[in-house]
Amino acid sequence: MEQSSTSALLESAVLDIASDVVSALRSGDHARADGTPADVGGDGIARAAVRVLGADALLPATLLGTPPTPARLAVFADAVASHPPRPDAAPTVRWSHWAMARTLRRVTDDPVTDDGPEPGAGWLDDAGWQQLTHQLAVLAPLALPGEECALTRAAQRRPVDVARGFVRAVRRRDWQQAAGAGRWLTLLDGVPDTLGLDAGLDFVRLMGGDDPRVTLQLEAARLMPARVPL
Questions:
Q1: Which CA distances in Å does 99 have to 15, 47, 114, 146, 156?
Q2: pLDDT tens across 117-165, in order?
Q3: Cα 50 from chain centroid?
Q4: Is 155 within 8 Å of 162 (Cβ atoms)?
Q5: Closest to 190 (Cα-Cα) out of 217, 161, 219, 212
């Protein structure tokens, strides 16, 4: 029962943060609510919720240049400091942490903040298009204009495979994966015109837009083509 209650609190906190990010992306400013995710279940829930969303918890700052609230920034910094990846962590965990640390350094403009060495992306070289799309969707917070790293280069080499994965996710009604893949596709060269990406993203919004995590990715995709690179 306790585990179920904790899971429910975490899910609620994740959705709350995602909703705040969506509101900020639409308005051009961070939501100015007095509360933070820590109000729902304590600091541990707050940190865990930020870890779920990763660098996207501060997306309005990186994408629009609007500063986060002090409370949100404090929770984000605490999440980065409190949960370094273990040596045997999965590649997606290492990349997510690296992206969060890099985001923190950029937002705070603090040269002391260390995002550490860039993780490798070799595990994607032999990944099938289904697995590639899944991994990129999980790491959608790295899909930013002007972002240059091994992961973005791996995505740039395989636009057709990501397009195939996007179509598969839509057919499977996996709206989170479709939205994440669609976000990547807005940045990739060589995406087939026959994909109809704009219409596809509109369809994902129609079918999956009740989930703020889906909407967050779609709002990022909508804004990114017009943004100046970092």
A1: 20, 16, 11, 14, 18
A2: 889 889 998 899 999 999 999 999 999 998 889 999 999 999 999 999 9
A3: 11
A4: yes
A5: 161
DSSP letter at 34? S
Task: Look at the chain and count its residues.
Answer: 230
- Do the beta carbons of residue 98 and residue 62 sit within 8 Å? no
CA 41, 43, 45, 46 torsion-angle sign: positive
Task: Give the contacts of 24 (CB within 8 A, at least 6 positions apart).
Answer: 30, 31, 59, 60, 64, 66
Between helix 212-223 and helix 197-208 the angle, nearest 10°, is 150
Which spans in the chain are helix H?
A: 2-27, 43-53, 59, 70-82, 91-108, 129-138, 150-156, 159-171, 175-185, 197-208, 212-223
Contacts of 148 (CB under 8 A, 6+ apart): none
Query: Both tokens of residue 44?
Result: 């541990």
Per DSSP, the three-state class of 147 is coil
- According to DSSP, residue 68 is labeled P
State which amino acid sits at residue 134.
H
Token pair belonging to 54: 């990763």
Q: What is the pLDDT of residues 76-107, one digit of tens each?
A: 999 999 888 988 999 999 999 999 999 999 99
Q: What one-letter code names the amino acid at 115?
A: D
